[in-house]
Amino acid sequence: DGGITQSPKYLFRKEGQNVTLSCEQNLNHDAMYWYRQDPGQGLRLIYYSQIVNDFQKGDIAEGYSVSREKKESFPLTVTSAQKNPTAFYLCASSSRSPGTFTSTDTQYFGPGTRLTVL
Amino acid sequence: AQSVTQLGSHVSVSEGALVLLRCNYSSSVPPYLFWYVQYPNQGLQLLLKYTTGATLVKGINGFEAEFKKSETSFHLTKPSAHMSDAAEYFCAVSLGGAAGNKLTFGGGTRVLVKP
Fold first, then answer.
1. B53 burial class (0-12, 13-18, 19+ CB within 10 angstroms)?
2. Cα–Cα dist B87/A97, whole Å
3. Is B62 exposed, middle or buried (0-12, 13-18, 19+ CB in 10 A)?
4. Chain B hits for A45, Cβ within 8 Å
C-alpha cells in the first residue's frame, strides 16, 4: 500500500535532548512537509522540501532542523533549542506538476508522532 | 500573506441534523481551498478541495462546500450528521503558483454529534 509512515507514534524525551522524528513516503512525491499541531492552534508549518537536497523554513522553524537526502525520507530533528517541544507532529507529502515548480496537488498526511518532553 | 478563520472552535449537532462549519479566508490572489478531517490521534484526511471551475464541491462522506468569492468563504456542510462525523475539521488555503502548495490552516472546529 502506498502512503506515509511516521515513527514512532509516541515519543518521550528528557528536556535538553535532541530527538529525531521519522517520515517516509512511498508515493513518489517530490514535496514533503512538517507541521506542528497544538490544541486550538491548527497546524503550523515547520519546514518543507520541494526537491531532494533542498528545503526551506516554514513559519516556526526555530529549534528544528531537517534533511532531505532521499526523495522518500524527510526526518525532523527537534533540538534542545526548541522552547516548547511537546506537541503532535505531522508529516505530509504532495506531488508536483512535471517540469514546473508549482503544484495545486493535495497534501497527504501521515498518522503523526506525539512528542512529550519530560 | 493568506489567512484562514474558522468560526467556532466547537460545534454540537444532533444525529440527523445539518452540519455547517464556517470558514473565511483572506488572500491576495485566487486561492485554492481545502477541508480536512482529523480523528483523534490520527493524521489529516482530505474531505474536498476547490481549485478552479465549479464553485460547489462535493467530497467524501456526504460533505460538500461552496466557494463564494464575494464573501471570501468556503463553508462545509452535510445535510444529515452521523455519529461517525464526530471529529475535528480544518479549513486550509494555498496560493498555488510560485508559492507551491504550502497550506495555511484555520484553528479547527471540533464536531460533537449527539444521539
1. exposed
2. 32
3. middle
4. 102-104
Would you state the pLDDT for residue B31? 84
Restricting to A residues 38-67, those with a Cβ less than 8 Å away from any Cβ of B are 40-45, 48, 50, 58
Cell (9 digits) for A91: 508529516
Cβ B46–A108 below 8 Å, yes or no? Answer: yes
Prior bond of A8 cis (ω within 30°): yes
With pLDDT > 90 as the criterion, what percentage of chain A qualifies? Answer: 72
Q: Decide if pLDDT at B100 tops 90.
A: no
State the pLDDT at residue B10. Answer: 95
Query: Residue B96: its pLDDT value, please?
Result: 65
Specify the 3-state DSSP secondary structure of B99: helix
Q: Across the interface, do B43 and A90 touch by the CB < 8 Å criterion?
A: yes
